[in-house]
UniProtKB/TrEMBL annotation:
Keyword Nucleotide-binding set for record: no
Name of the protein this chain belongs to: Serine/threonine protein kinase
GO molecular function, one term: protein serine/threonine kinase activity
ANK repeats: 52-84, 88-120
Keywords: ANK repeat, Kinase, Repeat, Serine/threonine-protein kinase, Transferase
Key word Membrane present: no
Residue ranges, annotated region (Disordered): 112-162
SUPFAM superfamilies named among the record's database cross-references: Ankyrin repeat
Signal peptide segment: none
InterPro entries: Ankyrin_rpt, Ankyrin_rpt-contain_sf
Length: 162
């Protein structure tokens, strides 16, 4: 049409995706599973990182939002991705184990999270070590049943990864 500026569709799409992602983070933080489901159906990317590098799945895991975590993983969020710009926040499973969110730990394991994966750029601890230091014995038991191996202490008594 004459007189109308050309629409830059890639720019519009990026802006829409950014808005969807922002809303997905808000819904995740508030534990609003219905809104998370709707946003994912509308095309929100379950792996798009927030400004500080945080992932929606990490936030859901810290908050103990098992249903939200399940929805994110069913939409393609990888359960072992470290959060934070440099991975410094750690893995979703370590976050859920740290806070004793057994339901979220169960969902992460059911979707393939590695019960022995240590945080490389965070503390270096495993999910089981986080649960044991909680102390969250129910969460530790669930991780052990899923194949988590107890930490081997170095001969100097320090923790592995430190």
């Amino acid at each position: 049409m004459a007189g109308r500026p050309a629409v830059a569709w890639p720019t519009v799409k990026r802006r829409q995706q950014k808005n969807l992602s922002r809303h997905l983070f808000e819904a995740t933080l508030s534990g609003d599973a219905a809104r998370v489901r709707a946003l994912l159906r509308a095309g929100a990317d379950p792996e798009r990182r927030y400004g500080d590098g945080s992932t929606p799945l990490y936030f859901a895991s810290v908050q103990g939002e098992a249903e939200v975590a399940r929805l994110l993983m069913e939409a393609g969020a990888a359960p072992d991705t470290e959060s934070g710009e440099d991975g410094s926040q750690g893995t979703p499973l370590c976050a859920a184990a740290c806070w004793g969110h057994t339901g979220t730990v169960r969902e992460l394991l059911a979707h393939g999270a590695d019960p022995n994966l240590r945080e490389d750029h965070g503390t270096g601890l495993s999910p089981l070590e986080w649960a044991e230091h909680g102390p969250h014995p129910g969460t530790a038991g669930l991780l052990t049943a899923a194949g988590a191996e107890p930490a081997r202490r170095p001969s100097d008594g320090s923790r592995p990864g430190r």
